[in-house]
Every structure is written in C-alpha cells, then in structure tokens.
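Folded chain entry
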Amino acid sequence: RLLTETLDVHYFGTGGTWSNTTRTVQADETEAELGTEWTAPDVPGDSQIFVVLRDDRGGQAWAARQIQVTE
C-alpha cells in the first residue's frame, strides 16, 4: 500500500526577503513547485538560508546554505 501525506516546506534566512515563506504540498498533488524567490539584502555580507521540510507523521529534514552577498 502506498502512503501519501501532506508536506510543508518552510524558508528562513538571516538576511534578505522571500516571495513565499511556506509552501504546502497536498497528498493528492502529483507534481508540485516547491520553489520560492529570495531577494538578497542591500548590504554586502554573509547570509544564511534554511529550508525545512515537515511531513504528516512528524518527520522533518532541513538544509542550510551560506551565501556571500557582494553587491
């Protein structure tokens, strides 16, 4: 039996702005666009971005990246 579940994707960062900070993928969606747009801060420096994925059973995974803004 194939288990389907709803997934929530959350976007966070130490600088800049997001076009959408949360995306929910319903269990019946066969294809989903999980992306969002990140606009870098106006001031050069390092920013960290984080993506967190959570499922219906309480599981979660995350990824972090450091981005150097130069101009």
